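Figure-free illustration: sequence to structure, shown twice.
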Amino acid sequence: EESAGFDSNCITPGTTFMERAAEHLRYFVRYKVQHDALWRRLRVVISAADVPGEGEHKIAAHIRSERECARRHCVYGLDADLIMLALATHAPAVLILREKVVFRRPNADSKRKVSLASTGDFVFLHASLLRRYIDLEYRSLLLPYGYSLECVLDDLLLISFLVGNDFLPHPPGLQIENEGLG
């Protein structure tokens, strides 16, 4: 029987694939910590599919719980929610490593409108630097009430999630394609 290829439905909590992936990941981390001197000083946290919650939100909760520690957190991922969640943690040093992607027009045979393609380059986003830019932008406004960067960030994040959330319908006046955030 001809193979249909990889079934992406197996990448979901509770499947044998995810249980085995977590098992292999735990083995790999144990091996590296025992045999690689560079890994011995690292603290690796694994939160596999057996722990409830969406990945980005589990990462943000972990960073918030470690907020008082003088630690740097580096998160890899393409999900734009990571940027918002990094700001929402209010943690002092969160870096996001993202692969640089470009939009590609499909060929004539493709059914897709636009696709993303990797460039092989990576981008570091420093959440603390983004916080400073937002602070500079909003601090200069003459506000009739007291200024708080944390409140500005919380308000900006709330509006951003309303505009770009996958789970809620968009309010008509806040659609990104209609310059709702502009």
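We now fold a second protein in the same way, so the two outputs can be compared directly.
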Amino acid sequence: MARKQSPEKLRQRIELFSQKLIKASPKVDIQETEEEKSERKKRLLKNFEKFCFFYFPKIAKSEFAAWHKKYYRHIIKHDECYVAIKVSRDFAKSSVTILLIVFLYLNGEIKSLGLFSHSEDQATKLIAPIKVALEKNDQLIRDFGQFKGSKWKDDWFITKDGASFMAFGSGQTPRGGKDPEESTRFDFILFDDFDHPEVCLNEDRLNKAWKYVQGDVIPALHVSGKKRIIFLNNKIAEDCIIERAYKKALDPAILNALRLTVNLRDKNGNSNWPEAYTNEQVNMMYALAGEEAETEYDNNPTADGKEWLEEYFIYRKLPPLSKYQFLLSYLDSGFKKTQYSDTKALPLLGYYQGEFHLRWIMCRNADLPAQADWHYILEDIF
């Protein structure tokens, strides 16, 4: 199961990120006329990447990855969309999304945003960089004026032109907003790090969280008009919110759905963000993370199994195969990255008078041809 960052570590990361948002130092011609300034702003508001490199050079230090481009282009193009991305840790999912939100807001595309995470404290930390960018980025303020409105709290701030940004933890009601007199229905909903390992271990709690997503949060959007819905998380369990959202995106009634699975390495074992991370750096992180790398970087959650003890088994003479009510043989033959990535097993199980009998099993590291041979071996034996 994936490890979550401590609140203190997350706070330090957010503060560092926020400071980088402030330290914008674009080269602006001091002789620039108002007309030239207006034309420059128009150009930047039509190009997201140039916007980021100009206003946030301390954040946008590397070229965008291929998935970043597909992600932001889809959201900019479609003001009604549903996006679910299972993305590796440390792939700038939150950073790019924060910059995208500022970009869309300045283009008049956001009037009311709700950011949802697994706790209110986490959501407040994740929304903080938006507030910091609008409050302290000198170049943004020089170009667009002051943004600070009458309400300017950490978990909810409203800009001077009336755009609302709210942070919610799982279970907090977004119905009508935090102040019905001032808030409007959302036109942008972001679920960032909404999954929590303890919730994913309990099916009832997970079902409750999913019911909250579908029953409380989604209906807080307008039925008509703009509605951008985004889920971002690495897959931390076989059943989790990001996985359910990912499957939900297949519903043909959902307009402009986008599903992406973004691992740290591609199918050939190379860096999936070569503009930022070399193969050597990526390989080192896999080595350091050990067994957790599958969960944190490959969206393939792993969990320790239980040891089967000798006393669990009863040994006796078994009936002929013709006596069994059911016989089942199954092999999950998937593997990746190396020829002998996983230990695989092919058992033959029989159901007889309320008991399960293990009639035969093959269990070892093997490539795909060897695994296929097991079935022929099984057939020859029985």
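Summary for the second example: The chain has 13 helices and eleven strands.
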